[in-house]
C-alpha cells in the first residue's frame, strides 16, 4: 500500500510517512475522503482526538481542513515519531499535541478539554474498538455536547454495543472498512432551544 497522503486543505497533496510493521490500521484515501465529506464544513474550527494515532493521517487531514486542534495518542514510540515527522512535513505541528501512552489510561483521567470528534481506529481483531468506545462512554465528558465518536473497523468485527451515554446513529461501509458514528443520547444533552 502506498504512503497515505493529505487529500484536501492547507497540506493537500503531502505524502505522509508510514509506520513500519503492522501495529497500525491504515485508512485508504477513499475512506478518508468519504469520512471528511460526511464531516463537511463542521471540521472547521473543531477539536479532534485521534485515539490510536498510527501515522496521524486522519488527525492531520482534520488539521489540514481547518480543525483548530488535534491530540494524537499512540502507545508505540515508532508511531509517535512518525506522527511528529508527518506534522512537521505538513507544517501543522502548532495546532497538534502528540502523546505517547495508553489511550485507555489517558481517557480514564478527568477530561482536560472536550473534543468535537473522537476517532477510534485501533489495530484490527483485538476487540480494542469495543474497549475504546466503552471507555469514552464511561468518560463522556471528553466529548462535546454535540460531538461524534467515529469508529473505523473491519465489518466482521462489528457488534451492537450496549452503551450508557452514547448511541449509534449511522454506519457507512466501504469495501472491507466500516465507519460507525455515535453521538450522545438525546436525553444526555439539555435542549438549548
Automatic annotation (TrEMBL):
Signal peptide start-end: none
One Pfam assignment: Cons_hypoth95
Record's keyword terms, sorted: Methyltransferase, Transferase
Any one GO molecular-function label of the UniProt entry: methyltransferase activity
GO BP terms: rRNA methylation
Gene3D superfamilies: Vaccinia Virus protein VP39
Protein name (Swiss-Prot/TrEMBL): Methyltransferase
Organism: Anaerolinea thermophila (strain DSM 14523 / JCM 11388 / NBRC 100420 / UNI-1)
Amino acid at each position: 500500500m502506498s504512503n497515505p497522503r493529505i487529500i484536501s486543505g492547507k497540506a493537500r497533496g503531502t505524502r505522509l510517512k508510514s509506520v513500519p510493521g503492522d501495529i497500525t490500521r491504515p485508512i485508504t484515501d477513499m475512506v478518508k475522503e468519504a469520512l471528511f465529506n460526511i464531516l463537511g464544513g463542521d471540521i472547521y474550527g473543531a477539536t479532534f482526538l485521534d485515539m490510536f494515532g498510527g501515522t496521524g493521517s486522519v488527525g492531520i487531514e482534520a488539521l489540514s481542513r481547518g480543525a483548530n486542534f488535534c491530540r494524537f495518542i499512540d502507545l508505540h514510540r515508532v508511531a509517535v515519531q512518525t506522527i511528529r515527522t508527518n506534522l512537521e512535513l505538513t507544517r501543522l505541528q502548532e495546532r497538534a499535541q502528540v502523546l505517547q501512552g495508553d489511550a485507555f489510561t489517558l481517557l480514564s483521567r478527568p477530561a482536560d478539554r472536550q473534543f468535537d470528534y473522537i476517532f477510534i481506529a485501533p489495530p484490527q481483531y483485538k476487540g480494542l474498538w469495543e474497549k475504546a468506545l466503552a471507555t469514552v462512554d464511561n468518560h463522556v465528558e471528553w466529548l462535546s455536547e454535540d460531538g461524534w465518536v467515529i469508529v473505523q473497523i473491519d465489518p466482521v468485527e462489528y457488534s451492537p454495543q450496549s452503551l450508557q451515554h452514547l448511541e449509534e446513529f449511522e454506519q457507512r461501509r466501504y469495501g472491507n472498512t466500516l465507519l460507525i458514528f455515535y453521538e450522545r443520547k438525546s436525553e444526555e444533552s439539555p435542549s438549548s432551544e
